[in-house]
């Protein structure tokens, strides 16, 4: 009878060990759920960025307005006859001096 009790105790400890510490344990499942949530957030951010880039590509392909806006913003280009005004922040100017 003692052998049976000892065997059952060992089996119980073995199953509990795997539940708490081994592969597929509660701690590992919790960690994996946390990683999954973080990865989903990253995927959502990348999806938003991809959609924005797709809109920008479509805008550049469809007409000259997108190209003109991109050139104005990125390269500082102006049309003939236009006057460019640049407003500086006084605090930024003080920092540069």
From TrEMBL:
The record ties this protein, via Pfam families, to: DivIC (PF04977)
Has the keyword Metal-binding been applied to this entry?
no
Specify the protein's topology with respect to the membrane. Answer: Single-pass type II membrane protein
The answer on whether this UniProt entry bears the keyword Ion transport reads no
Question: Can you say where in the cell this protein is located?
Answer: Cell inner membrane
Record topological domains on the Periplasmic side: 22-97
Where would one find coiled-coil regions in this protein?
29-63
Subunit architecture: Part of a complex composed of FtsB, FtsL and FtsQ.
Family according to the record: Belongs to the FtsB family.
Q: What is this protein called?
A: Cell division protein FtsB
């Amino acid at each position: 009878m003692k052998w049976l009790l000892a065997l059952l105790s060992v089996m119980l400890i073995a199953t509990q060990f795997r539940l708490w510490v081994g592969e597929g344990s509660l701690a590992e499942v919790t960690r994996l759920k946390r990683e999954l949530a973080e990865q989903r957030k990253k995927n959502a951010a990348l999806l938003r960025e991809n959609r924005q880039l797709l809109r920008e590509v479509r805008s550049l392909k469809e007409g000259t307005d997108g190209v003109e806006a991109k050139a104005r913003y990125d390269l500082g280009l102006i049309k003939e006859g236009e006057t460019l005004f640049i407003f500086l922040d006084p605090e930024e100017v003080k920092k540069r001096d």
